[in-house]
Amino acid sequence: MEKRCWITDQPLDIQIITEKVIRREAGAINTFIGTVREFTNGRKTLFLQYESYKEMAEKKLEQIATEIDQHWPEAVTVIAHRVGRLEISDIAVMIAVSTPHRSDSYEASRYAIERIKEIVPIWKKEHWEDGEEWIGDQKQTRPGIPLKGEIK
Amino acid sequence: MITLLFFAGLKEAIGDDQIKMPAVGMTLGEVKEKVWAEYSIEQVKSCMVAVNEEFAPEETTIQEGDTIAFIPPVSGG
C-alpha cells in the first residue's frame, strides 16, 4: 500500500493529496493547508526553516492517522509535511480526510493538525527581520504518548 | 555504544547532530543527566526523549545499539 503520511523537502500539491482520499463512499473531503504567515504579533517573518526527525516524524504522522481510524472508522486520511526553507505563503502541511458525512471530515482534520503540534518531531525556525529563533509550542509537559481514553 | 541525536535549537547549542557514548545499562533519565552535566544546556531538561524512534519513559534501560533522540518542544504544522 502507498504511504499515507510522509515528510518531504519538495513542494506539496493539493491535487495529488486530494486524489489519494477521493472514493465513491465519501460524501465529504476536508483539506487543511497550513501556510507560512508573514506577521506574528506584528513581527515580520522573512522565511521559515523546518527540520524533522524524518523516520520518527513519519511514524508519528502514521500514528495520528491510526488514531483517526480508531475514532472515525470510515475516514481515509492523508498527511504530508514539508521541511527545508519555506517562503511566505508556501505550504508547510497538508491534511486531507474523506468521510461519508461532512462533520466527521471536519473533526478528523482538526484532530490531525492539533496532534501534529503535540507529538510529531518537526521544528520550525523563524527568521525575522531582526533575528532568528527556534519555535517550541510549549506543550512539552504532555508526554506525547496518548493515554487510553485520551483519544476522544 | 549508543547514538544520541539532537535536533533544532538543541543541535545548534551542542554543535553536533549526533554523538556516540557508552551508556548500556543506564536508564534514559541517567543519560539525560549525563548530557546535561556535560553540556550545561538548560534545554536538555525540557526535551522529551525517544528510543529507537518512539517516545520512552525515563526509567527505560538502554540497550547496546540504541538510538536516543532528544526531542525539543515540537513546532510543526
TrEMBL record, chain A:
<comment type="subunit">
    <text>Heterotetramer of 2 MoaD subunits and 2 MoaE subunits. Also stable as homodimer. The enzyme changes between these two forms during catalysis.</text>
</comment>
<dbReference type="InterPro" id="IPR036563">
    <property type="entry name" value="MoaE_sf"/>
</dbReference>
<dbReference type="GO" id="GO:0006777">
    <property type="term" value="P:Mo-molybdopterin cofactor biosynthetic process"/>
</dbReference>
<comment type="similarity">
    <text>Belongs to the MoaE family.</text>
</comment>
<dbReference type="Pfam" id="PF02391">
    <property type="entry name" value="MoaE"/>
</dbReference>
<comment type="function">
    <text>Converts molybdopterin precursor Z into molybdopterin. This requires the incorporation of two sulfur atoms into precursor Z to generate a dithiolene group. The sulfur is provided by MoaD.</text>
</comment>
<keyword id="KW-0501">Molybdenum cofactor biosynthesis</keyword>
<dbReference type="InterPro" id="IPR003448">
    <property type="entry name" value="Mopterin_biosynth_MoaE"/>
</dbReference>
<dbReference type="GO" id="GO:0030366">
    <property type="term" value="F:molybdopterin synthase activity"/>
</dbReference>
<keyword id="KW-0808">Transferase</keyword>
<protein>
    <recommendedName>
        <fullName>Molybdopterin synthase catalytic subunit</fullName>
        <ecNumber>2.8.1.12</ecNumber>
    </recommendedName>
</protein>
<comment type="pathway">
    <text>Cofactor biosynthesis; molybdopterin biosynthesis.</text>
</comment>
UniProtKB/TrEMBL annotation, chain B:
<dbReference type="InterPro" id="IPR012675">
    <property type="entry name" value="Beta-grasp_dom_sf"/>
</dbReference>
<dbReference type="InterPro" id="IPR044672">
    <property type="entry name" value="MOCS2A"/>
</dbReference>
<dbReference type="InterPro" id="IPR016155">
    <property type="entry name" value="Mopterin_synth/thiamin_S_b"/>
</dbReference>
<protein>
    <recommendedName>
        <fullName>Molybdopterin synthase sulfur carrier subunit</fullName>
    </recommendedName>
</protein>
<dbReference type="GO" id="GO:0000166">
    <property type="term" value="F:nucleotide binding"/>
</dbReference>
<dbReference type="GO" id="GO:1990133">
    <property type="term" value="C:molybdopterin adenylyltransferase complex"/>
</dbReference>
<dbReference type="Pfam" id="PF02597">
    <property type="entry name" value="ThiS"/>
</dbReference>
<dbReference type="GO" id="GO:0006777">
    <property type="term" value="P:Mo-molybdopterin cofactor biosynthetic process"/>
</dbReference>
<comment type="similarity">
    <text>Belongs to the MoaD family.</text>
</comment>
<keyword id="KW-0547">Nucleotide-binding</keyword>
<dbReference type="InterPro" id="IPR003749">
    <property type="entry name" value="ThiS/MoaD-like"/>
</dbReference>
